[in-house]
Write a structure and sequence with these properties.
Blueprint: E1 2-6, E2 21-25, E3 34-36, E4 39-47, H1 48-53, E5 56-61, E6 67-72, E7 81-85, E8 102-109, H2 116-136
Parallel strand pairs: 4-8
Antiparallel strand pairs: 1-2, 3-4, 5-6, 7-8
Amino acid sequence: SSGINAEYGGDVYPGKKPKDVVFIVSEKPHAIFTRDGNDLLYTTHISLVEALCGNCEIVVPTLTHEKVPIPIGDNCTKPGSKKKIKGYGMPISKNPGQFGDLVVTIYVDLPTILNPEQKRGYTLCFVVELYYYRIIL
């Protein structure tokens, strides 16, 4: 919470100096965004397969109800990676027409249970990877 002081903005009475009026401003929490100065923070999740293989797209909501696509390229996405969407944050009060950024943090959902077929698939994938690096390096 912060206060805005309107000096001498209170009631005026004959022979008395007007008092100040103080407006207390508090920020109401948003359902999906957190504010960091002029930037908005948003958190999303992708699957382990999406994190490892890429070639997918995250669709990010905005305050203006637009949906902004963020492509996830060919590279692996690390848990906690951040992507910045310029100009989709909060309006900058001292610079009309300018906005902060929307910062998207990407978390990777790891499976809690794997069936035997999935275990074999992941094992095969990582064994081939290990073998490849041992031969090349």
